[in-house]
Amino acid sequence: MSESFGRFRIGLVAAALALTAGIGSVYAAEQQTADQILNALKPKALTRSLSGGGAPAPKAMSQDDQRFIDGLRTKRTRSLSAGERERVATIAKEKPSVDLEITFDYNSANLTGKGLSAVNELGKALSDPDLKGGVFLVAGHTDAKGGEEYNQALSERRAESVKRYLGQKFGIAAENLVTAGYGKAQLKNQSNPFAEENRRVQVVNMESSKEARN
Among candidates 98, 77, 84, 99, which has minimal Cα distance to 175? Predict the structure, then answer.
Protein backbone atom coordinates (compact mmCIF):
# COMPACT_ATOMS: atom_id res chain seq x y z
CA MET A 1 0.00 0.00 0.00
CA SER A 2 1.36 3.40 -0.94
CA GLU A 3 1.73 6.33 1.46
CA SER A 4 0.55 6.63 5.04
CA PHE A 5 -1.77 9.64 4.92
CA GLY A 6 -1.91 10.66 1.28
CA ARG A 7 0.24 13.74 1.81
CA PHE A 8 2.00 15.63 -0.91
CA ARG A 9 4.12 18.71 -1.00
CA ILE A 10 3.86 21.08 -3.88
CA GLY A 11 6.89 23.08 -4.93
CA LEU A 12 6.51 25.93 -7.33
CA VAL A 13 9.69 26.55 -9.17
CA ALA A 14 10.61 29.68 -11.06
CA ALA A 15 14.43 29.96 -10.89
CA ALA A 16 16.44 27.40 -8.82
CA LEU A 17 14.80 23.99 -8.55
CA ALA A 18 16.76 20.80 -8.16
CA LEU A 19 14.15 18.08 -8.49
CA THR A 20 16.21 15.48 -6.67
CA ALA A 21 17.39 17.58 -3.74
CA GLY A 22 15.16 20.62 -3.50
CA ILE A 23 18.10 23.01 -3.73
CA GLY A 24 17.04 26.65 -3.48
CA SER A 25 13.56 25.80 -2.25
CA VAL A 26 11.68 27.23 0.69
CA TYR A 27 10.10 24.33 2.56
CA ALA A 28 6.92 25.09 4.43
CA ALA A 29 6.00 23.55 7.76
CA GLU A 30 2.83 25.67 7.70
CA GLN A 31 0.63 26.80 4.87
CA GLN A 32 2.01 29.84 3.11
CA THR A 33 -0.02 32.77 1.87
CA ALA A 34 -0.44 33.77 -1.75
CA ASP A 35 1.89 36.73 -1.19
CA GLN A 36 4.62 34.48 0.23
CA ILE A 37 4.26 32.10 -2.69
CA LEU A 38 4.35 34.98 -5.16
CA ASN A 39 7.51 36.48 -3.66
CA ALA A 40 9.27 33.10 -3.74
CA LEU A 41 8.31 32.45 -7.35
CA LYS A 42 9.13 35.75 -9.00
CA PRO A 43 11.83 35.18 -11.62
CA LYS A 44 15.30 36.48 -10.84
CA ALA A 45 15.06 38.73 -13.87
CA LEU A 46 12.26 40.65 -12.10
CA THR A 47 14.06 41.14 -8.78
CA ARG A 48 17.81 41.32 -9.36
CA SER A 49 19.68 44.62 -9.19
CA LEU A 50 20.07 46.44 -12.50
CA SER A 51 23.51 47.55 -11.35
CA GLY A 52 24.78 43.99 -11.53
CA GLY A 53 24.35 43.00 -7.88
CA GLY A 54 22.58 39.89 -6.70
CA ALA A 55 22.16 36.57 -8.42
CA PRO A 56 22.31 36.45 -12.23
CA ALA A 57 19.08 36.04 -14.17
CA PRO A 58 18.25 32.48 -15.22
CA LYS A 59 19.28 31.43 -18.70
CA ALA A 60 16.56 31.35 -21.30
CA MET A 61 15.62 27.96 -22.69
CA SER A 62 17.17 26.91 -25.95
CA GLN A 63 14.92 26.85 -29.00
CA ASP A 64 15.05 23.05 -28.97
CA ASP A 65 13.96 22.88 -25.31
CA GLN A 66 11.25 25.49 -25.96
CA ARG A 67 9.85 23.39 -28.80
CA PHE A 68 9.91 20.33 -26.54
CA ILE A 69 7.95 22.10 -23.78
CA ASP A 70 5.52 23.57 -26.31
CA GLY A 71 4.90 20.07 -27.62
CA LEU A 72 4.00 18.84 -24.13
CA ARG A 73 1.61 21.77 -23.69
CA THR A 74 -0.34 21.15 -26.88
CA LYS A 75 -0.25 17.36 -27.21
CA ARG A 76 -0.85 16.05 -23.66
CA THR A 77 -2.90 12.92 -24.32
CA ARG A 78 -0.68 10.44 -22.44
CA SER A 79 1.72 10.12 -19.54
CA LEU A 80 5.25 11.36 -20.09
CA SER A 81 7.86 8.74 -20.91
CA ALA A 82 10.84 8.24 -18.61
CA GLY A 83 13.03 10.11 -21.09
CA GLU A 84 10.62 13.03 -21.29
CA ARG A 85 10.39 13.26 -17.50
CA GLU A 86 14.17 13.33 -17.24
CA ARG A 87 14.43 16.05 -19.86
CA VAL A 88 11.81 18.16 -18.08
CA ALA A 89 13.78 17.78 -14.83
CA THR A 90 16.96 18.91 -16.56
CA ILE A 91 15.28 21.99 -18.09
CA ALA A 92 13.78 22.89 -14.68
CA LYS A 93 17.04 22.54 -12.80
CA GLU A 94 17.89 26.26 -12.53
CA LYS A 95 14.56 27.84 -11.56
CA PRO A 96 13.51 29.49 -7.98
CA SER A 97 10.98 27.47 -5.92
CA VAL A 98 8.65 27.25 -2.95
CA ASP A 99 7.26 24.06 -1.37
CA LEU A 100 3.65 23.99 -0.22
CA GLU A 101 2.04 21.16 1.73
CA ILE A 102 -1.01 19.83 -0.05
CA THR A 103 -2.96 16.91 1.39
CA PHE A 104 -5.07 14.30 -0.38
CA ASP A 105 -7.42 11.60 0.80
CA TYR A 106 -5.65 8.34 1.68
CA ASN A 107 -4.41 6.55 -1.46
CA SER A 108 -6.46 8.99 -3.53
CA ALA A 109 -6.11 11.99 -5.81
CA ASN A 110 -8.99 13.78 -4.05
CA LEU A 111 -7.89 16.96 -2.27
CA THR A 112 -8.72 17.29 1.42
CA GLY A 113 -10.16 20.49 2.87
CA LYS A 114 -6.67 21.56 3.93
CA GLY A 115 -5.36 20.63 0.50
CA LEU A 116 -7.98 22.80 -1.18
CA SER A 117 -6.98 25.74 1.00
CA ALA A 118 -3.34 25.37 -0.02
CA VAL A 119 -4.18 25.09 -3.73
CA ASN A 120 -6.37 28.20 -3.41
CA GLU A 121 -3.37 30.17 -2.16
CA LEU A 122 -1.36 28.77 -5.05
CA GLY A 123 -4.07 29.77 -7.52
CA LYS A 124 -4.10 33.33 -6.20
CA ALA A 125 -0.32 33.55 -6.65
CA LEU A 126 -0.42 32.17 -10.18
CA SER A 127 -3.16 34.66 -11.06
CA ASP A 128 -1.00 37.64 -10.03
CA PRO A 129 0.24 39.77 -12.97
CA ASP A 130 3.86 38.87 -12.14
CA LEU A 131 3.19 35.15 -12.73
CA LYS A 132 0.02 35.06 -14.82
CA GLY A 133 0.57 33.58 -18.27
CA GLY A 134 3.66 31.61 -17.25
CA VAL A 135 4.11 27.96 -18.18
CA PHE A 136 4.19 25.68 -15.13
CA LEU A 137 5.14 22.06 -14.71
CA VAL A 138 3.10 20.27 -12.03
CA ALA A 139 5.24 17.30 -10.99
CA GLY A 140 3.97 14.68 -8.56
CA HIS A 141 6.14 12.58 -6.21
CA THR A 142 5.41 9.81 -3.70
CA ASP A 143 7.35 8.16 -0.88
CA ALA A 144 8.88 4.70 -1.24
CA LYS A 145 5.91 2.67 0.02
CA GLY A 146 4.24 0.49 -2.59
CA GLY A 147 5.20 -0.63 -6.06
CA GLU A 148 6.73 1.53 -8.76
CA GLU A 149 3.78 1.32 -11.16
CA TYR A 150 1.24 2.17 -8.47
CA ASN A 151 3.23 5.15 -7.19
CA GLN A 152 3.89 6.38 -10.72
CA ALA A 153 0.17 6.37 -11.52
CA LEU A 154 -0.76 7.98 -8.16
CA SER A 155 1.78 10.78 -8.61
CA GLU A 156 0.37 11.51 -12.07
CA ARG A 157 -3.24 11.53 -10.86
CA ARG A 158 -2.45 13.90 -8.00
CA ALA A 159 -0.61 16.30 -10.28
CA GLU A 160 -3.59 16.20 -12.66
CA SER A 161 -5.96 16.87 -9.73
CA VAL A 162 -4.07 20.06 -8.86
CA LYS A 163 -4.05 21.13 -12.51
CA ARG A 164 -7.78 20.49 -12.90
CA TYR A 165 -8.66 22.49 -9.79
CA LEU A 166 -6.50 25.43 -10.83
CA GLY A 167 -8.24 25.49 -14.19
CA GLN A 168 -11.75 25.21 -12.80
CA LYS A 169 -11.34 27.63 -9.90
CA PHE A 170 -8.92 30.20 -11.30
CA GLY A 171 -9.26 29.81 -15.06
CA ILE A 172 -5.60 28.92 -15.56
CA ALA A 173 -5.32 27.62 -19.12
CA ALA A 174 -4.70 23.89 -19.41
CA GLU A 175 -1.91 24.47 -21.92
CA ASN A 176 -0.04 26.51 -19.29
CA LEU A 177 0.01 23.60 -16.81
CA VAL A 178 2.04 20.58 -17.92
CA THR A 179 1.77 17.59 -15.57
CA ALA A 180 4.29 14.83 -14.89
CA GLY A 181 4.56 12.02 -12.34
CA TYR A 182 7.86 10.88 -10.84
CA GLY A 183 6.45 8.26 -8.46
CA LYS A 184 9.10 7.28 -5.92
CA ALA A 185 12.03 7.75 -8.32
CA GLN A 186 13.22 11.10 -6.90
CA LEU A 187 13.00 10.94 -3.12
CA LYS A 188 13.62 14.28 -1.46
CA ASN A 189 14.72 12.60 1.79
CA GLN A 190 16.72 9.58 0.67
CA SER A 191 17.83 8.77 4.22
CA ASN A 192 14.18 8.21 5.17
CA PRO A 193 12.36 6.88 2.08
CA PHE A 194 8.99 6.85 3.88
CA ALA A 195 9.21 10.43 5.20
CA GLU A 196 6.24 12.68 4.44
CA GLU A 197 8.41 15.28 2.70
CA ASN A 198 8.86 12.71 -0.07
CA ARG A 199 5.10 12.88 -0.74
CA ARG A 200 4.92 16.11 -2.67
CA VAL A 201 4.04 17.88 -5.90
CA GLN A 202 6.44 20.36 -7.47
CA VAL A 203 5.13 23.05 -9.79
CA VAL A 204 7.89 24.46 -11.95
CA ASN A 205 7.59 27.88 -13.56
CA MET A 206 9.31 26.93 -16.79
CA GLU A 207 9.30 30.46 -18.18
CA SER A 208 7.32 33.42 -16.93
CA SER A 209 5.51 35.66 -19.37
CA LYS A 210 7.57 38.64 -18.20
CA GLU A 211 10.85 36.73 -18.67
CA ALA A 212 9.75 35.77 -22.16
CA ARG A 213 9.18 39.42 -23.07
CA ASN A 214 12.54 40.63 -21.70
Answer: 77
Could you give the number of structural domains in the chain?
Answer: 1
Pick from 193, 191, 168: nearest CA to 183: 193
125 with 131: CB under 8 angstroms? yes
Identify whether 2 is part of a domain.
no
What is the CATH classification number for the domain harbouring 111?
Answer: 3.30.1330.60
187-190: long-range contacts, CB 8 A cutoff, minimum separation 24:
187/141, 187/143, 187/144, 188/9, 188/20, 188/21, 188/22, 188/141
Query: What's the domain range around 198?
Result: 7-47+56-133+140-213
Q: Shortest CA distance to 204 belongs to which of 69, 67, 47, 11?
A: 11
Position 3, amino acid: E
Instruction: Give pLDDT tens digits along the chain (214 positions).
Output: 555 445 555 554 433 333 433 433 444 446 789 998 888 777 765 444 444 544 455 567 788 988 898 888 876 667 888 899 899 888 887 776 777 777 777 778 888 888 899 899 999 999 999 999 888 888 888 889 899 999 999 999 989 999 999 999 999 999 999 898 999 998 888 999 988 778 777 877 887 545 544 4
